[in-house]
Fold this protein.
Amino acid sequence: MRLDGWEVRLFEVLRDHEARPFSWGGVTGGRPDGGSDCHMLAMDACRAVTGIDPYPDERGRYATRIGALRLFSARGFRWLDDAYAAVFERVPPMLAQRGDIGLVSCDGADCACVVVGAEAIGKSPGGTIRVPVAALRTAFRVG
């Protein structure tokens, strides 16, 4: 269920993450660095929309892509697709609405993005990305 005022909170989250540098898990050298990655962006967006982050204990627990893969694997997930399918309803990308989460191929791997209309916003090692919703490989209904 989406909370009252979610639209304002969602755009505040997106603006905040756009201003932050990319870093896996928001960690460098074992310490929080103020950065963010696509999963952190997606979960912050989910919390803005619904009040719930389904994976709050993952923050700061990985500092590389391999570390993130290990963390997801320990939960029984191959990657983001499995983790999101475990807690959200899968929808065709063209039916994704503002606040929903999608996955797009980026830098040779899936990258989580948040739908904001005709485009979706995510984070990659190169920084913030914007892609057309039509480029999403899959999407998940949030709330």
